[in-house]
Amino acid sequence: MEKLILENIKSRRSIRKYMDKQINDESLNMLLEAAIYAPSGSNNQSWLFTVIQNKAVLQQLNIIVREAFLESEVNENDYPARKAAKKKAENENYNFYYNAPTLIIASNVNNYPNAVADCSVALQNIFLTANSIDLGTCWINQLSWLNDNIKVREFLFHIGLPIDHKICGASSVGFIDGQVPKAPLRKENTINIIK
Ligand SMILES: Cc1cc2nc3c(=O)[nH]c(=O)nc-3n(C[C@H](O)[C@H](O)[C@H](O)COP(=O)(O)O)c2cc1C
Questions:
Q1: Which residues, judged by CB distance below 6 Å to any ligand atom, belong to the binding site of ligand 1?
Q2: How far apart are CA 190 and CA 72, in angstroms?
Q3: According to CATH, what is the number of the domain 15-175?
Q4: 177 burial class (0-12, 13-18, 19+ CB within 10 angstroms)?
Q5: What is the Cα–Cα distance from 22 to 19, expressed in whole angstroms?
Q6: Best of 83, 139, 186 for a ligand 1 pocket test (most atoms within 8 Å of beta carbon)
Q7: Which residue of 141, 176, 190 sits with most ligand 1 atoms within 8 Å of its CB, as the best mutation to test the pocket?
Q8: Could you tell me the pLDDT band of residue 76, with boundaries at 50, 70 and 90?
Q9: Measuring from atom 31 of ligand 1, which residue has the nearest CA?
Q10: If you measure from the C-alpha of residue 158 to the centroid of ligand 1, how many angstroms do you get, rounded to a whole number?
Q11: pTM for the whole thing?
C-alpha cells in the first residue's frame, strides 16, 4: 500500500494540455470528496470549492483575467511567474487554465490564518486522486494573484464565490492530451535528518 501511494505521488505531473472532453460526474465527485476529507486547522473546514465546467463561463472568466494582467503593473521585484503572467497575457490565445474542461477554485475565509494551508492540502488531495484515475491537473495560481481585482471578484461573486473569501489556489482538471512530462530533477540538500 505504501508503495502505491508513493508511486501515485511520484507519477503526478502538472498537466498543461487537455483534451476537449468533459470529465464525468463520478470522477468529479471523487475529486471533491478527496478535497473535503483533507485535514484543516482546528478542523475548520471553512473552505469552498467552486467548480466551473461551463465552457462559456470559463471563457468569459479568461477574458477578464487576461485583461486584468494586461492592465496590471509589474515591477522588477515581483515573483518571476507573476512577471511572466503579464507577458503571457499579451498572446491572443492566452488561456490561464490551459483550456481544461474543469476548473476547481479553492477559496477560504479571508481572516483565517490557515486559509492557504488548508486549501493547499485539499488541492494536493485533488491532484493525487485525479492522478489515480488518469486525469491531469495543474495548480492554477492566476486567480490568487487577482484577489483584489474588482472585475474578477464581481464575476466570481455572481457565480457564488463570496466576497469575504480569499482565493487560495485552483486546479485545472481534464483528460491528458499528449505525453506526460518527466518529473523535474529533485534539488539537493532539501532534507535534514537529526538522529
Ligand atoms: C503554489 C503553486 C503555484 C503554481 N502555479 C502554477 C501556475 O499558475 N501555472 C502553472 O502552469 N503551474 C503552476 N504550478 C505548478 C508548478 O509549476 C509545478 O508543480 C512545478 O513546475 C513542478 O512540476 P510537477 O508539478 O510536474 O512536478 C504551481 C505549483 C504550486 C505548488
A1: 13-14, 16, 138-142, 183-184
A2: 35
A3: 3.40.109.10
A4: middle
A5: 8
A6: 139
A7: 141
A8: confident
A9: 139
A10: 28
A11: 0.97
Q: Which amino acid, 120?
A: S
CA of 125 to the centre of ligand 1 (A): 15
Question: Ligand 1: which residue has its CA nearest to atom 21?
Answer: 14
Q: What is the 3-state secondary structure (H, E, C) of 49-77?
A: EEEECCHHHHHHHHHHHHHHHHHCCCCCC
Residue 125 pLDDT > 90, yes or no?
Answer: yes
Name the pLDDT band for 192 (thresholds 50, 70, 90): very high
Name which residue sits closest to atom 23 of ligand 1, judged by CA.
14
Per-residue confidence (pLDDT) for residue 78, from 0 to 100: 86
Which amino acid type is present at position 34? A
pLDDT in tens, 16-69: 999 999 999 999 999 999 999 999 999 999 999 999 999 999 999 999 999 999
1 band by pLDDT with thresholds 50, 70 and 90: low
